[in-house]
Amino acid sequence: MGLPGNPPGRDADEREFDAFYTASVGRLIGQLYAMTGDLAESQDVVQEAFARAWERRAELDLDGAPEAWVRTVAWRLAVSRWRRVRSALALARRQGPAPAVPPPEPHHVLLVEALRRIPEAQRRAVVLHHLCDLSVEQVAAETGCPVGTVKAHLSRGRAALARLLADTDLDPRTDRLPEAKHG
Predict the structure, then answer these.
(1) Long-range contacts of range 165-170, CB-CB < 8 Å, 24 or more positions apart?
(2) Inter-CA distances, 56 with 64, 83, 94, Å
(3) Per residue in 90-112, pLDDT tens?
(4) Is there a single domain that holds both residue 117 and residue 89?
(5) For residue 135, what are the domain limits?
(6) Are 121 and 82 members of one domain?
(7) I need a labelling partner for 137 at 20 to 30 A (CA). Which of 42, 67, 118, 147 fits?
């Protein structure tokens, strides 16, 4: 007897598929590992192939050769991944080496270190409001918090940052703030 709302025989189908999975997953991973030479990749593609088999379980003949179908799908997934990686590497080679990136400015490092030390909710509100230029209402919508809560996070976050940045180049009480660079 099926669960309420399930078509008759669904429980049996699920049990049959579970038994198929349990009986063949290890064997298929081993086979794909032998074909690909990469255990993690083999586990990933076999799991993805089983997920696709689950979606098509009504069409999949568990009395026929379902293991061959899963193995073929897993192999095709592995080949597809290799092609994507190969294409990405070819593109990277064509573009040449990445340009040199200058180290972060000292005031940027100070700010990031201070931000890391305040609670996550305050940090998120401060970054969204002050660095992303979102209004308090937009921050509230994005974080799912009431406007009053966002205002409290901002107030507490700014106070915590002021304490953490006291006596540094970013101390808001001094005129030592670095000038903004305009391009």
Answers:
(1) 165/110, 165/111, 165/114, 168/110, 169/106, 169/107, 169/110, 170/107, 170/110, 170/111, 170/114
(2) 14, 26, 41
(3) 988 888 888 898 988 888 888 89
(4) no
(5) 106-164
(6) no
(7) 118
Q: pLDDT by residue (tens digit) across 38-78? A: 999 999 999 999 999 999 887 887 677 899 999 999 999 99
Q: 């999975």: which residue's tokens?
A: 21
pTM equals: 0.49
Sequence-distant (≥ 6) Cβ neighbours of residue 154 within 8 angstroms: 122, 125, 126, 129, 136, 139
List b or e across 28-58, with b for residues whose CB sees 16 or more CB atoms inside 10 angstroms. bbebbbeebeeeebbbbbbebbbebbeeeee
Indicate if 70 and 46 belong to the same structural domain: yes
29 or 176: which leads in pLDDT: 29
